[in-house]
Design goal:
ten-stranded antiparallel sheet
Length: 767
């Protein structure tokens, strides 16, 4: 833990007191989004202190030219940037002829932020003394509408406390923005058109290279004591990429002046004419009005929470943590559009390019399958199917593979590889396995097999072809090996026979072969169509199987464990407990050379394999491998603690499971890795959900049935969650005395609890 200023609360993220050192961290933590767009919690008014400005639009990116010191063959030509979108929230404010800027005020008191997760809004309030002696109280509420998802709303209240005040509001929209992480300090937006109305304005711009067109808009209303003051702008200033209106008003001491600003974006992904679309959004939002928009927001979030909430009794920090994670996941991805995916920072920052990683398949899909309609998860699978051709092209052009072998990109926006580190781009090939596993996991959970003959089988064949060609035969070992890889543990590069990579490669081939047979038997028309399309023969499948049946896995017979890679035991095996805390996190303290030679693990590869394929191993095997690798794991990957929490619970190590749960759930709130100012770890938040449902709840799907082995941390009085399993809603409530199951569906549901089958009737419950 590196920070502890967020106040414990069941439903809100709260900060009290103004501290310039916390501004950037809070900008991340208090971010808001609605699936279509999002923004960091930047101040609306001028702030001259250190800040990280960021607004983002789903699906809009820029191919920033890769910047490396030494070009290697196969480097991606660009790194896809999630773009800092035009600014619509800005409101410069003058009070008695002095600019409002918290960095320059004489005094700031009673500063408070609240992100209300239950109702989906962000509030900031403070009192300030300006250098001219004017004292004011300010309250700002902002939200991004879930229903009208191209619009956001700001209500900015100012009350003079010690004297009458002349207040000048200068709301603006500005497309002249840059990215904090731009490689070449380029501008990414080309202004096209500015349009001004009475109280509304529009700036249309397009991205260079990708030519996404975006119209940024605003509509302003000035109120006095809650009533429309019918004030028109006194001046309108504009350039090619910015419009700013000026509204002047005088308000008596103790009275409240307000500007309500509606703003947002319409994009060419969804509109043929973005300007006309923006005008329509403003008309709809204005017709509804602030109070109705806010109530609709509250109602929309209530519907989301009805299904996705997890309750925890007796531990406020644990409760706050899981709700923060669930809230951010729902803000980031709604599942409406199969062209979109889940960026690792969501709408909270620019790091990692905001693109799609293997995190979606390995960690996020279970959350969306269980808390949404299954179509949401199917859309995520469809996203990869639609990019299969580019995955084949990637394997062919960058690695020299042939015959339809597919290597999905480590990072992508449109199916093209756009990660700018060679050792990740071409060595961290295990991501192919996660994509295949997600197809299996979707079918296992939903029972919807139709995706495989319709789309998934082609993906599985491309992936199996990749593993067949990527493996090589070792005469020394008389087995197939996979050389020169990086596993999920990115603190080991270019190593041989990473256990997780080898294991999932074998599984992918076996699973693809099984599905080919099943589709041939049960969906002959689809089988014929796919086989003709990919020109696959039974002889080729036999070649795959030869590789899978003879895959090498590194083991230590002495220790009774699988090895992360061939040379792991050659390292100086000093456990983490003996590592000076001043050296953590090692990725910020040590040279990369030292990190690579150390035994320290960012994310345990072997345990990731045990998580995916739990039923392939005995409990004793899990125990030996867990205890060995946990001692060397520094958990500097956000994806690490959740898997350890799940496995610790399975091993009845409940104190450890609880500690890891707190770490994954409060990773950003408590800033464990000293990096939250760059944005939150959105995709790993799905792992937090898994650590409760699969960890403490012990939920598994076996033989088309739900299995549970519920456990509860001693720190909790009880917890509950809901899951949507094959269109039946099951509620699970656990306390120290009993576990209660309640089903809401059209038929009885048989589940297995601690190894014993139990049948639940509709609206009845069992203990």
């Amino acid at each position: 833990m590196n920070q502890d200023y967020i106040k414990p609360d069941n439903w809100s993220i709260i900060e009290e007191g103004f501290d310039v050192e916390r501004v950037k961290s809070s900008e991340s933590l208090f971010s808001i989004g609605n699936g279509a767009m999002g923004q960091r919690a930047n101040f609306e008014e001028t702030y001259s202190g250190e800040t990280f400005q960021g607004s983002y639009i789903a699906g809009i990116y820029y191919p920033d030219k890769t910047k490396v010191g030494w070009w290697k063959n196969g480097y991606p030509k660009y790194f896809a940037k999630v773009l800092n979108a035009p600014n619509w929230i800005g409101i410069d404010i003058e009070i008695n002829e002095e600019n409002l800027d918290l960095h320059n005020c004489t005094e700031v008191r009673n500063f408070r932020r609240e992100l209300n997760m239950k109702e989906g809004w962000y509030n900031r309030s403070f009192e300030a003394v300006l250098k001219n002696g004017t004292e004011i109280a300010v309250n700002i509420r902002r939200f991004l509408s879930l229903d009208l998802d191209e619009a956001g709303v700001i209500k900015y209240d100012i009350t003079p406390l010690n004297k009458d005040a002349k207040i000048v509001y200068k709301p603006y929209i500005d497309a002249g923005v840059t990215n904090e992480d731009a490689n070449w300090e380029e501008k990414f937006w080309e202004p096209l058109e500015v349009k001004k109305g009475t109280n509304e304005a529009f700036v249309t711009a397009q991205t260079f290279k990708t030519h996404f067109k975006v119209t940024t808009f605003m509509h302003n209303t000035i109120l006095a004591n809650g009533e429309d003051a019918h004030i028109s702008p006194s001046t309108i200033d504009s350039t090619t990429d910015k419009v700013q209106y000026t509204y002047g008003t005088i308000i008596a001491k103790g009275q409240t002046s307000t500007i309500q600003k509606i703003g947002g974006y319409t994009v060419s992904l969804n509109h043929e004419n973005t300007l006309a679309g923006a005008e329509k959004v403003i008309k709809s939002a204005v017709a509804l009005g602030y109070e109705t928009l806010l109530q609709n927001q509250i109602d929309a979030w209530a519907k989301i929470w009805e299904m996705s909430d997890i309750t925890i009794e007796g531990d406020v920090k644990a409760q706050q943590g899981i709700r923060f994670n669930i809230f951010q996941l729902n803000q980031t991805y709604s599942g409406k559009d199969s062209r979109l995916n889940i960026g690792p920072k969501g709408f909270t920052g620019e790091k990692y390019g905001g693109s799609t990683y293997w995190d979606t398949e390995a960690y996020c899909i279970p959350f969306y399958m269980a808390t949404k309609d299954q179509q949401v998860a199917r859309n995520l699978l469809t996203y990869r199917y639609n990019q299969l051709d580019k995955a084949i092209e990637n394997a062919k052009d960058n690695l020299g593979f042939k015959n339809g072998a597919a290597l999905y990109p480590m990072v992508t926006m449109n199916g093209e590889e756009c990660h700018n580190e060679w050792e990740i781009t071409h060595e961290e090939i295990h991501r192919n396995g996660a994509i295949a596993f997600a197809i299996y996991n979707y079918y296992r959970y939903t029972g919807d097999y139709s995706y495989i003959p319709e789309k998934g089988l082609e993906v599985l064949i491309g992936i199996a072809r990749f593993w067949h060609q990527r493996a090589s035969f070792s005469n020394e070992k008389n087995q197939y090996v996979i050389l020169g890889v990086t596993g999920p543990n990115e603190y080991e590069n270019n190593i041989n026979n990473n256990f997780y990579t080898n294991y999932i490669a074998k599984w992918c081939i076996d699973f693809a072969s099984e599905q080919i047979e099943k589709v041939a038997s049960e969906y002959p028309a689809d089988h014929k169509r796919v086989m003709e399309k990919v020109t696959l023969s039974s002889a080729e499948i036999q070649k795959w199987k030869k590789v899978a049946d003879n895959m090498y896995f590194p083991v230590s017979e002495k220790l009774g464990i699988y090895l992360q890679q061939d040379g792991f035991l050659d390292k100086e095996l000093v456990p983490v407990k003996d590592l000076d805390k001043s050296q953590r996190p090692i990725n910020q303290k040590w040279s990369w050379d030292r990190v690579l030679r150390s035994p320290y693990i960012k994310q345990a590869d072997v345990l990731q394999g045990f998580y995916f394929f739990e039923d392939h191993f005995s409990k004793e095997e899990l125990k030996r491998n867990f205890e060995f690798y946990e001692s060397f794991t520094v958990h500097e990957s956000s994806l690490s603690p959740c898997v350890h929490s799940i496995q610790a619970a399975a091993l009845d190590k409940m104190d450890m499971a609880y500690t890891f749960y707190l770490r994954t759930s409060r990773l950003d709130l408590d800033d464990y890795n000293k990096e939250v100012e760059e944005g939150c770890h959105i995709t790993s938040m799905a792992g937090t959900w898994m650590s409760i449902v699969e960890g403490f709840g012990g939920m598994r799907v076996k033989n088309d049935q739900l299995h549970f082995s519920p456990k509860i941390p001693k720190e909790w009085k009880g917890y509950s969650f809901k899951i949507n399993f094959r269109n039946q809603i099951l509620k699970v409530a656990v306390n120290h005395n009993e576990t209660t199951f309640t089903v809401d569906g059209d038929q009885d549901l048989t589940i297995v609890v601690n190894g014993k089958p139990q049948t639940i009737s509709k609206f009845a419950q069992i203990n």
